Structures are given as C-alpha cells and as structure tokens.
Amino acid sequence: MTEQVTPRSQAIRQLYSDHAGTIYAIALKLCADRSSAEDLVQEVFLNAYRNWDGFEGRSSPTTWLYTIAVRACQRMHRKRAGAPARIESLDELLPFGDPYIGIIADEQDDALQQAIRREATARIEREIAALPDDFRMALILKEIAGLSVPEIASILGVEEGTVRSRVHRARLKLRKAIDSAIPRTPDPVPPPAYPEQTCLDLLNAKQAALDRGVPFDSEVICQRCRSVFASLDLTQQVCRQIAAGDLPPALRERIEAALAHPDKA
User: Fold this and answer.
1) pTM here?
2) Residue 2 domain-assigned?
3) Under a CB-based contact definition with an 8 Å cutoff, are residues 44 and 16 in contact?
4) What single string gives the DSSP state of each residue in 55-70?
5) Residue ranges in the chain whose pLDDT is less than 70
6) What does the pLDDT read at residue 42?
C-alpha cells in the first residue's frame, strides 16, 4: 500500500494484517462461491477504511471489523437458497444410545489419527455449510474467528445465552458428523456408574470450557464422556485449522491496491 500514512491507514493496515486471512476463511463459509467470498473480503476492508472516523471505540477494533463482515454478508446474501430451517434437538444430538463408542486419540496410531483428521476436515466443511444460518454464523464467529461469546453477542445483537445455545448445538452437530468417522470400540462399553444427568452436567461444563478456551478435567468421567469430549476437541481443532489460511496472492494485491486508492475502488 502506497497511500499517505495516517492514523486511519495505520489502524486499517494492522487490522488487515491481523485478520485478512481469517475474514477470507469465514467468507468462504458464508458465500456461495469463491468469487463472492473475494468480493466480501474487499468490501469489508474498504468499508472499515471509509468508516474508521465513525468508530467510537465502544467495542474493540476486532469486534467492529467482524460486525462489518457480518453485515456485509447479510447484504450480499439475504437468505441462502435451500438453507436448512432447523437443527436437531439436543436429545437428537446427544450420544447416549450407542453401546459402542469412538476410540479416543490416545488409543489410535499416527496413521489412523491422520486419516481421521482428513476425513473430519471434509465432514466439518460439509456440516458447516448445512447448518441453519443463525447457527452457522455463531459457530463460525466462535470456532473459526475465535471470538468470545460476549463479542459475538455484540456483533449479532443477541443475548449471550442465545450465542452459547447456538454454538453448543452446532458443535454437537459437527461432533456427531466427526464421530461417525472414528472407529468404534470392539466391545460395548459398560454403563456409567452415575445418572445420565451427571453426563449432561459434564457435557455442559466441557462446552463452557471450550467457550472460554481453557482446559477441562474431571475425576468423575466415564468412557463414553471421554470419547465425546475427545471428538469435541477434534471438532474445535479442525475449525481452527480452517481459519489458519491466507489470502490468495492475486486477492491480496487487489485489496492492497484498493486500500491504497479507496476513492477509486
């Protein structure tokens, strides 16, 4: 970028450096095709540049930037054709019926782990695209953009509890898809020695730990819960891996040229 360096250009340049790759990864999940995703990324940073003087500092620059991204997406794609109207209920998503469970990573060899991760990535890509819009947006902002629940609530204009509910159910939906790719235990697992509600309480605690990005550990945990938590961890790891990409060189040149001369873009 060759424009005169000003506080505004410095701020947008830093946001661009820090978030362009993630915004592009998100755009690929929110748009119907790669061309639309590239247009969305350019629109986000041009809008940020043009509206910087209106940024009042009530939120962080990152939250402000992703608010622009979400609104740009909503303008470009009001409603996806064929978007699913519902997501399964918690009862349908909870893994309490099958006597055989997925083998956890500690019991898999390296080749099997790599094969599972490849299959998990493909399945998560498909499942994210198949989520209802409200759940998809919340999940993408949490697991791909890595934003906090309060930040997402501010961006989407909903209560924090609504964000948690959407993220938790979307995670369980993705986990269910991943779990079906993991080899099962050769023998049925014994029933837990405590009530099913304890498993539900542990699952809620695990989800809360994932929300905060902190480790979760409990001495009261059955084989089934260990397997479920391992597949939840894999779900989050794969989502973060999706966010680790970078802009294609041609798109980077195009956006940098537009930011250098925003009045002509």
Assistant:
1) 0.87
2) no
3) no
4) --SSS-HHHHHHHHHH
5) 1-5, 32, 77-85, 97, 105-107, 264-265
6) 92
